[in-house]
């Protein structure tokens, strides 16, 4: 039995008692102008249904059912023990993205704060603000250009070690290996595969449990995530101590990676960041820097296997670039700029299989949206599927059509795999580079066919093929 369901079945009487506290806290009973919807079971709300629709392969169902029943603009629910308004459509996206730090601010479930102990000193929200101030210098296109050749080298080594000479492979775990290798190099200057592999298994456990119902019992995804975070943090602390020594002895440079920058940066009071704080920041970056990209490149392989006409167009574009390179010459910024069709394909993949389902906000004042009241303290959720799978935003939404991204592309606030507004993902350009480098290297080496034609896609919490996408390789 699913440990989450077992927990709720065992402790339901206690949860019913907790409902009295929740009922007072939520203030939804005393406000007659709240959005339409239902709050679900006491304290649990609709969390189980929200999570299970993803695990059953239909993450958009939770949203679509309620948009059809209550409102296409906003409905109320309760997820992760919080009263919540789910805003929908391009209008809802624009409203939230445009009112960051005016009406709403970022919010994460308690599970995130419990996994990152430094957030007990400052909230995860404050940490996020500090990180956003620190990252632009490293993640803007001009700074990332110097990493393209390195990404290409890692991709080549990855395919030589894990793909070439094999008749069949499973794509998803190998995609995670590639993106994690790139993240370790860019953020920590670690490229030794043995050293990188020390992180891999605990990191997968962490990623699987970070956005989970926070049940801290043996065997639950949340407990496994806490244990994994502690394991990774110990390894990071050893790396940090060594880097401090290397910087002091001029064996490392201040600008070689994000870790060096963090060790030398000071806050508003001129104080250096402590080691635990740095470890947690690097941990957060490694999560954001590889997990979503690995899901995207996996689905690129899936769709190219299913759509030979799309594969052929990508192949033509990438081989033209490959033929222009000298023996041993790495990819560069000019090559990336030529991959226009390939990026349109990647964008259409992210529309149909978005690497993240959405994000959360918290109301910092009372306000109204679409004629309904949103009380201060309520949480808000925007979800990519309210536009990505909406025929009003994308005609024939289930059809794979890269041409949607030609010219000026989709209408504003409809295509939002990286969010939007002040909180748009700062790693968008980084993700674009590692995705395109992967596409170039895989398609110039192989064609492939799926071994499970109707393999189900699940979301837990990221989208992934249920069996990891096994394929048969057909080398060129």
From TrEMBL:
Q: Transmembrane residues, as ranges?
A: 6-23
**Positions annotated to bind heme:** 425
Q: Where in the cell is it found?
A: Membrane
Identify which cofactors the protein needs according to its UniProt entry: heme
Give the keywords, sorted: Heme, Iron, Membrane, Metal-binding, Monooxygenase, Oxidoreductase, Transmembrane, Transmembrane helix
Q: Which SUPFAM superfamilies match?
A: Cytochrome P450 (SSF48264)
Q: Does the keyword Transmembrane helix apply?
A: yes
Name listed for the protein in its UniProt record: Cytochrome P450
Q: What is the lineage of its organism?
A: Eukaryota, Viridiplantae, Streptophyta, Embryophyta, Tracheophyta
